[in-house]
Write a structure and sequence with these properties.
By secondary structure, the chain is of the alpha/beta class. Helix content is about 30%, strand content about 25%. Strands 7-10-8-9-11 form a 5-stranded mixed β-barrel. Helix 2 links the parallel strand 4 and strand 5 (about 70). The chain starts with 5 loop residues before the first strand and ends with a helix. The mean pLDDT is about 95.
């Protein structure tokens, strides 16, 4: 994939209730959203922009040399937000790949972002994502840990068959923690956001099931660890400790 054909978008908004003002909270001297921006830039896969409905977030991003795109406030999901941002940035359709990096992953390794994009080297893959083997016993049964169930394809790669909050698959062997970062072919993103919510998506409360139910192919790259998602004050303190050392 050439860099000119790939766009990395980071959706960010101020709606978090457990950690108010989350994108702008200070971590090691920078707003959290700027840390995510830096990780995405360090991946060196293409242009990077933050998609937001909040002027304060846009101002923080541009103050640190980044690009921000304003979007509507009423989007039901980050996927809808990045699709609007894509059409704003590239109305002529020159960009072929869109990588959606969550705005609350300030410690994500740049190489993991690249790994999601590499999955699209296979023309049969519509969407690339990430997963890591579950190593903590309690995560096998924790419904907040989403599992990717897939067929191994070799080379640290799975073809996703299902995503679930349940403990699955049954029996001996590894289970995989799904990491919610996505690399979309443009046509796949356009198709996805126009589909209505699916039955299993609504039941499991997992948006990616909409794509599988529509017959789209999702592959997952296996990476070494799950990046810290900052959702609580405890997560924030952990991120501060991690990035202070870095």
């Amino acid at each position: 994939m050439t860099e000119t054909r790939t766009l990395v978008l980071i959706p960010a908004r101020m709606a978090a209730t457990r950690l108010p003002g989350k994108p702008l909270l200070d971590i090691a001297g920078l707003p959290m959203i700027v840390h995510v921006l830096r990780r995405a830039e360090e991946a060196k896969i293409g242009r990077v922009a933050v998609a937001t409905d909040t002027p304060e977030i846009a101002a923080a991003v541009t103050a640190h040399g980044g690009e921000a795109v304003m979007t509507r406030a009423d989007h039901p999901s980050g996927s809808d937000r990045i699709y609007e941002a894509l059409r704003t940035i590239d109305p002529d359709g020159k960009i072929e790949i869109v990588v959606n990096v969550q705005g609350d992953l300030p410690t994500i390794p740049p190489g993991d972002i690249r790994a999601s994009l590499d999955l699209l080297d296979d023309p049969k893959v519509d969407i690339g994502t990430l997963a890591a083997e579950i190593r903590k016993e309690e995560e096998h049964t924790n419904p907040s840990v989403v599992k990717l169930i897939g067929s191994p394809l070799g080379g640290q790669r799975l073809r996703a068959l299902y995503f679930t909050r349940a403990t699955a698959p049954y029996g001996d062997g590894p289970r995989y923690h799904h990491i919610g970062l996505y690399a979309y072919r443009r046509a796949a993103l356009e198709r996805f956001v126009k589909l209505p919510p699916s039955v299993l998506e609504t039941r499991e409360k997992l948006e990616q099931l909409r794509a599988l139910e529509a017959g789209m192919r999702i592959d997952g790259a296996l990476v070494n660890s799950v990046p810290l998602g900052v959702d609580t004050p405890h997560d924030l303190e952990t991120a501060r400790q991690m990035l202070a050392k870095g």
